[in-house]
Structures are given as structure tokens and as C-alpha cells.
Amino acid sequence: MNHSPLQAERIKFKPTLPAVLKNGAAAIKVKIGKPTKSVADQAKIKAMFPNTYGMPEITFTKGKNAEASKKVIKMAVVLSGGQAPGGHNVIAGILDGLKKANAKNKLYGFLGGPSGILENKFVEITPKLMADYRNTGGFDLIQSGRTKIETPEQLKTAKENILKNKFNALVIIGGDDSNTNAAVIAEYFKQEGVKVNVIGVPKTIDGDLKNSQIETSFGFDTATKIYAELVGNICRDVNSARKYWHFVRLMGRSASHITLEVALKTHPNITLIGEEVLAQKKTLSQIVNDIAKVVVDRSKAGKNFGVVLVPEGLIEFIPEMKSLISALNDLLADNEAKLSKLNTIKEKKAFIISKLPKNLAALMESLPEGIANQLMLDRDPHGNVQVSLIETEKLLIEMLKTKLKELKKAGKYNGKFSTITHFFGYEGRCGIPSTFDATYTYALGYNAAVLALNDCSGYLSSVRNLTKKTDAWVCGGIPLTMMMNVEKRKGKDKPVIRKALVELKGKPFNFLKKNREDWAKNDRYTFPGPIQYFGPSVVTEMTTITLLLEHK
Questions:
Q1: Rg, C-alpha atoms of the chain
Q2: CA distance 527 to 265
Q3: Which residues are CB-contacts of 549 (< 8 A; sequence separation ≥ 6)?
Q4: Are residues 271 and 512 in contact, defined by beta-carbon separation less than 8 angstroms?
């Protein structure tokens, strides 16, 4: 494999293990904690997971555990869902944890995500193969996929393939949906009497898979550093040219953690947080009015420029837009035949508006033509609006232009409003992991191997105390069912790991709130620069501001 000079040097990096893991599984004892319960809907979750519900939290301590090194196991690993920096180091940690316990242990990777389990496609991950992928970005060693193993037929096929290949354990590296799937598989295997340990590992750049035991999901640190470098560069450019408003949409559909972290790193003039919009029940026009006020105030100070951060999922947090999208989903499905007979978009739009309640019809008419058309025409395979494709930053700009024209006519604004838009998403998913993520993911993988060697099925690998030195990190596992609640999906109760949204009473958001007015008026931009892999630890080992504030 060809490597750039940075890759070649980065491969040589050796992550430091937490003190409790350093001597391997044979020197690790399992400390059993108190029984657990799900975060909500306890009776329903218990009924759905009778064999794995209520298991205790587990913490690892130093001590003799000869049984762990006597076992010879074949473990399989699968990458599930979107990419996140550090996935390869999770696999490296698993491999090293297995080999440290017993050189005869073997690791295999299912190819292409969970579909690889169903298609029985896998490759042995040897130390030689792993050597080229340590500390690298991407998931290209075994690739990923979004297949879910949840139907009776899929579960049966997975069981048959796992047993046929004599695997003793399965590690699923993924986000909230993927680890919900891990819980389903763990429960099914126990129900079927299949002695295969299923372990989850928390991955997602969105940062929405966390709680007191999972302080952060891996990849969030690296991705937000990549985005913050880009936003910081834009801040410096805007402060140099002084003639553009830059609107930056950032990945993170279901939560605004990425946007909040990038704001804390760069201090833009305006930061929209979806969870705040929802809590305050703001309308689209109110959001536009808020932005317009900052634009006008800065213009009066001679500053016809600025930076606005917009979370990808903002539209779904605006109550009226959520209602409109829901109504459109129903109307388009119920009137598919009638709409197919209409020839133009204009006719279709008029028909839909005639069917909407008065308030939603007015909202639809107020939207820029391109966005309204997108809401009607861009559908997913289920016939629903593809919210992630909506260019929210362009919607806001078009509505702002209309608002600013009104203010000009009224003599309340006399500035210039020139805009540039950006969307930063895929740029951050496969970056070379930061030192924090490289170390954290390696520990998560090693920890997952120890969980499997101790027959801890149905657990999520947990490494915490992350703002301290690596030696002091606390390792163990938490039951996957502990993180679950029930949601209605297509009219049916479905168990899901609860997404962690931005906490409006939390320290990170309150820091933004405290500084928001100052950052809006003044140019307090900060410039994080690129991720540093070599040099003083103060820049190579720093983690997210979110994590530092949460543990302050």
C-alpha cells in the first residue's frame, strides 16, 4: 500500500493504553456493579429483552484472571453505518487485545457492513494486514454498510453463518441505530441458546451517542477539528475581505453537537442550535428576523460581513416546518395518482397548497420557490421528504434577502448583503484520527476484546474519565438495554438507543449563550488551524471544548 509521508509517520504512532488494560485480559478482573434499567419505558424494554435486560454495569480492575488467557476464540468485527475517524484503531485494539491474551486467538472482519454477515463475506485480520491501517482514517480495511439485521429471517441467517464459521464473539462498531441492532442480536442469540458474545462500540461523528458512561462517541473529536479548521479559515478570510456573509451548514442531522463544538472553537457571529429553536418553538420567520437583526446591527457599525453556523438538521427542529413536512408526506402519498396527472410543478404546488391547513399553506407559499419544489419533488424510497438534502443555508439567505429589502424600504437598513454558502460534512468522516481519537478508539477496541473474553454479551464498550491522562481512564461495559427507550416507527413500538441532543442547561451551550451577543457584535474569531500530530502535548493531545466544559 502507498502512503503519504504523514501516513507513513502516523502509522508508527503507538497509542497509550489505560493503566488497567496494559497487562492484558489475564491481569484484569471484572467488577460487577448494580443492576441497571433502561432510560425510559422500562416495562416495554424489559418485555422486549427478557434475557439481557437489567444486567449490571461492569468496571475493570487489576487482578489475576487466568481463564481469559486459557480460552482460544475466533472473533468477528463489523463496521456499521457512516464512517468516523478512528475505526481502524478500534479493530487494531481488538486484535492486540486478543493476541495479548492468547496468541492463538483470531480476528475476522465481515466485509461491507452487516450485509457481510448475511452474505458470509469476511477476511482474516492478521497483524500483517493490520499494519498498514493503524492510526489511519476511513473504514476501507473492511468497509461499512447500513444493512440492519432485525427480521426473523435475517437473524436466522446471521446465526447460521456465525455458527458455521465457529465464531465465539461479534463486535459491532456503530452509532445508536447500529448498537440498537447489536442489542437485538445479543438478545436473539441468548434466546436461541447461541453462546456468542455480542459487543458494541460507540461510533458517530454527530456526537449524539453519549451519556454518563459514554462521555463521547469516537470520531467527534477529529471531525469537529477538521470542520473548525475550515470555519476558522473562513473567519480569517471574512475578517480580511470584509465584504461577505458566509453561511456554513454542518453535518449532524439529529443533533447540533457538531455545530456547537465548532462554534466554541471558532467564535462565529451567529450560531443556530436546533434544540434551542425547538425549545423556544421558533418559527422560520422568527429565525430569519433574529439573523436580520445581527446583520443590520453589524452593518450600522460598518461591518457588512460575518459568519453563520447552521446545523444540518435545523429544519426538523422548527415546529412549523416539522408539521409541514409531516403533512406533505401524507398528502403526497394519498394523492399520488392525482399529482401524476398534473403537468407542471406550479400546478402540483397549487394543488398541494389547496389541501394544506391555512397556517401550513401560508408557510409553503412563503418559502423560496426552489425549496418549496424540493420539498415536493425530492423523496426517499418510502415517499418521504429527504430532509438531509434541503439546503437550509440557502433557504435562510433567500428569506433574509426578502426581509432586508423590506427593512431598506422602511429606511431601517442601508447595508450590503453578499453571501457565500458552504456545507461541511463528508470532509470530516474519514480524516486521519487526532491523537485523542487514535488513543480513545484503540482503548475502546482493546476493552471490547476484554469484554468478549469475559463472556460479557449485550454490552457497549465504555472508556471514560477522558479529560484525565490516559493512565487514569476508567474501562468496562454498560448494558446496551440501559440506553434504550421506545419510539413509534411506522405505527409500531420499536426499541432504540436514545439520541443525546444538545443539553440546553449544560455548560457547553451556556458558554455559547453567555458569549453570543459579544461574538455577534465584535470580531472575536479564533483560528484552530489543522490537526497537529507532532509537537507539544498541549496541541497534540487536546480534546473537544465540549468534553472539557462538561467535566469542568
A1: 25
A2: 8
A3: 264, 506, 507, 508, 511
A4: yes
Residue 73 shares a structural domain with residue 103? yes
pLDDT tens for 274-295 read 999 999 999 999 999 999 999 9
Q: In the block, which residue shows the cell 416495562?
A: 43
Residue 335's pLDDT is 87
Residues marked active site are found at 206
- Same domain for 173 and 231, yes or no, is no
Q: Cell digits for 308?
A: 453563520
Same domain, 479 and 545: no
Rounded Cα distance, 137 and 246, in Å = 29
User: Would you state the cell numbers that stand for residue 335, as one nine-digit string?
Assistant: 394523492
For the segment 9-26, the average pLDDT, to the nearest whole number, is 97
Structural domain range at position 194: 51-219+433-489
**Phi first, then psi: what are they for 477, rounded to 5°?**
-150, 150
112, 128 Cβ separation under 8 angstroms: no
Domain count, the chain: 2
Would you mind telling me the total number of residues written for the chain in this entry?
A: 552
167 and 139 within one domain? yes
Task: Please tell me the predicted confidence (pLDDT) of residue 378.
Answer: 61
Q: Is the domain of 191 the same as that of 312?
A: no
